[in-house]
Amino acid sequence: MKIICIGRNYAKHIEELKNERPTNPILFLKPDSAILLKNQPFFIPPFSKNIHYEVEVLVKINKVGKYIDSKFAHKYYNEIGLGIDFTARDIQDICKEKGLPWEKAKAFDGSAVVGEFLPKEKLGDLENLSFSLIKNNEIVQNGNTNAMLWKIDEIIAYASQFFTLKKGDIIFTGTPEGVGKIDENDQLTGILNGIENFSIKVK
Ligand code: MG
Question: How far is the CA of 36 from the centre of ligand 1 (A)?
């Protein structure tokens, strides 16, 4: 399986990182080795001094598809989840400055936290899903999918022009504002529609 991630999908997050607003979705991939195993802590890797959390809504693809029309994209997923796109911001800044690929900053082991997937019918309107990230006892990110620049179905249509989607693939749909650094012993808890979806310890 593969993980497809969308960058810069929330206007206020684009502003906080002083990025340019893209004219098309920004896509990058993480390999399956990036998935943080269930109930395991996240170990801060030795190559970065500035790992950031980015809480994101996840979509699990349920069948193979290419050149999917956004009108039919809803047929390609039944489950929605929540996760973290861990980012080595110090390395990403160097990559961006030099125009180099982002993989070292985005696709390293453990960089993809994948919480529990829920049937989409249980979640109601997918274009009005609230989600947040709690670091220790503080809410650090608070988002709603209504602020996405590209909605889930548009992301699927766009990404499937480049990459054949396969059953089990996961899409990370981008992070809202409030990203920040993690430190040893932090506890990160993701909330989707008011319900705890994952909780991980940083070591
Ligand atoms: Mg992200």
Answer: 15
In a domain, 189, yes or no: no
| pTM given for the model | 0.97
Looking at this protein, which amino acid is placed at residue 136?
N
Find the 186 Cα to ligand 1 centroid distance in Å: 19
How many angstroms is it from 5 CA to the middle of ligand 1? 7
Q: Which residues of 84-103 are buried (b: 16+ CB within 10 A; e: fewer)?
A: bbbbbbebbeebeeeeeebb
Give the Å distance between the CA of 104 and the centre of ligand 1: 14
Contacts with 138 (C-beta within 8 Å, 6 or more apart), sequence order: none
Residue 94: inside a domain = yes
Instruction: Give yes or no for a contact between 150 and 158, defined as CB atoms under 8 angstroms apart.
Output: yes
pLDDT tens, position by position, 128-184: 999 999 999 999 999 999 999 999 999 999 999 999 999 999 999 999 999 999 999
What is the domain extent for residue 52?
Answer: 3-127+147-182
